[in-house]
Specification:
By secondary structure, the protein is α+β, with helices and mostly antiparallel strands. It has 2 domains: about 50 residues; about 160 residues, Galactose-binding lectin (Jelly Rolls), CATH 2.60.120.430. About 30% of the residues lie in helices and about 30% in strands. It is built from 4 helices and 10 strands; from the N terminus they run H-H-H-H-E-E-E-E-E-E-E-E-E-E. The strands form 2 sheets. A 5-stranded antiparallel beta sheet has the order 1-4-9-6-7, with no helix packed on it. Strands 2-3-10-5-8 form a 5-stranded antiparallel beta sheet. The longest helix is centred in the first third of the chain and has 50 residues.
């Protein structure tokens, strides 16, 4: 081979220094990639895998704790109806009608008297048109002709004390209304000694078809011992004719 040909062949072959430089560069690049892989990718991948694994474990635990019904159980399952609790009754029993319209009755009892062919009916009624206040009112229907007379009242003959002591009061009061208006009747007090005084209602008020409060001073029952009242009553005779009245909220007042 000529000297010229050898020179051309050596020029075409890379020098050892160039090859070494390329190899060093490649190794450096590989090193950088390796460092990045292990420093960033691998830790993040492990953290993601750990989180997913923990979540999966929690889900598996929850599913394992919940019993899964079989197909037979699901087919035969019955939905339980919703039961509504029954409310507890809070109704308070009403007092007896007599106590309701005359709270001071204190062991007294009602009585009715009819003489000489008179007619009188008494009823405790819940009808609104005969109740002034509360649940009941007293309705007295009467028909008196000739010598007929009668009345309705409360007596204390069978009460523990055998009488009612009204000495600390000054007035006997009640509410009244008539069916037609203009009705007349008597208000009477009698003591245990047999002394009785009757007061005509038209000397106290004119009855109308609306409720009216009647206040009878106990001084009008002159001669009656108010420390021992035997009875109080509402009376009717031929002068009072035929009609019907309602009475409610009877009381002795100071």
């Amino acid at each position: 081979m000529s000297k010229k040909a050898k020179n051309e062949s050596s020029e075409r072959q890379p020098s050892v220094a160039v090859i070494a430089t390329i190899i060093v560069a490649l190794l450096g690049l590989i090193g950088t990639i390796s460092v990045a892989y292990f420093q960033y990718y691998v830790p993040n991948k492990l953290a993601i895998d750990a989180t997913q694994t923990a979540d999966a474990k929690l889900l598996i635990a929850a599913l394992s704790a919940t019993p899964v019904p079989s197909a037979t159980e699901m087919a035969t399952a019955t939905i339980a109806p919703t039961i509504t609790a029954t409310p507890t009754s809070t109704n308070t029993p009403l007092p007896p009608p007599l106590v309701e319209i005359f709270p001071q009755v204190d062991g007294g009892e009602k009585f009715v008297y009819i003489n000489n062919g008179g007619s009188l009916s008494d009823r405790f009624v819940p009808a609104e048109n005969c109740v002034h206040f509360g649940s009941y009112g007293l309705q007295l229907s009467y028909d008196m002709k000739g010598d007929g007379n009668g009345g309705w009242g409360v007596q204390w003959n069978n009460a523990p004390a055998k009488y009612f002591d009204a000495s600390s009061f000054s007035t006997f009061a009640f509410w009244v209304k008539g069916t037609y208006g203009g009705e007349i009747f008597q208000v009477s007090l009698k003591d245990t000694g047999g002394n009785e005084v009757k007061v005509e209602s038209d000397t106290l008020l004119i009855v109308t078809t609306d409720w009216i409060l009647v206040k009878v001073p106990l001084g009008k029952f002159k001669g009656v011992n108010t420390t021992s009242i035997e009875n109080v009553n509402f009376g009717f005779n031929k002068n009072h004719g035929t009609s019907s009245i309602c009475i409610d909220d009877i009381s002795f007042m100071p």
